[in-house]
Amino acid sequence: MTLVDEIRLLMAAPSMTANDMRTLLRRDHDEIVQLARDMCESESGDERRALLKQLKPALFAHTRAEQREVYDVLLRRQGDDDAREIAYEGYVAHTVQDDLLERMTKSRKTESDEWKAHSQVLLELVTQHVDKEQGRLFDFLTAQYNDDEREAMGRRFVAAKSRLALKVKAA
Ligand SMILES: [Fe+2]
Ligand SMILES: [Fe+2]
Q: What is the pTM for the complete model shown?
């Protein structure tokens, strides 16, 4: 995130602290969307492959930590249809993204138009999912949790992401 983005974010949401869950999710989202966009816009097969290598672990750590520390928390809210719907739809969106990423990883023809089409669809999926999370999910987190709870959630999210990153490195 650039300094300008950071300032814009703080102005838009003065109550959102740096460790708030929403701030942490948004920071990851910005990074992921940027990588997906760069990959989609690149005309070089080698560069596309290099960007995929960066995007995959970033998306993996983000989605798995998000599932554990956000979606699963929402799923445990028995009788809260809204929370459960957000979580289930999120899980499905992650699965579709994973599937596409897997196909792109298996294909060696990163310079082909077909591969570019895959990266275009991935960018669209990621962007749509991020927009939805920053809308509906953020509204939910704002309404249902206070500042301290969102910061505690954020700490657990960061810890989960670190553990996942170690796991990816060890694999
Ligand atoms: Fe997310
Ligand atoms: Fe997500």
A: 0.89
